[in-house]
Amino acid sequence: MYSEENYFWGLVGYYLGVLLVLAPLWRITRPLPGFPLRAVARVAVITLLATPMFPYRDMHYLAPAWGVMLFDAIGPERGDALLRGVLPLLAVFGLLYALTLGLWLIFRPRREAASKAAKSAPAPAPRRGRQEPTFAVGPAPESAASQQEKWARRGSGTRVGSNNGLP
Question: Where in the sequence is the domain holding 94, given as residue range(s)?
């Protein structure tokens, strides 16, 4: 049997692994349309992986709730074993999702403020189809004839990549 310290360090290692999973989770859920849908997916995965609970009533160490539910499904002690794991998951999901949406509603960019700023700013002058001048930096390009002369003077007539003179 493991000691309390072993269970503690096992839980610390598990939660460090959960933190490593969060970066790919954010990347995978970025294409989902709309923040509420992304938040549901992210909160569901975080809740499933990170919700702790007591695995047995007489022991006081914590374990991931999904693991406790899995072991209770394999060998239930009582009839309410799965319900014992689902209730903490649903409670944590509801609280975390409500907190996420509340923070999003407070800190999201306001469309009214952006439209008022656009109305108060002066309108840009219309373009008349002309192109702004560009300035070339560096030496002027060589003509094709001068490049051919330079290559004719330089080489012995052997093409690059040929294997003349090699065994």
Answer: 4-110
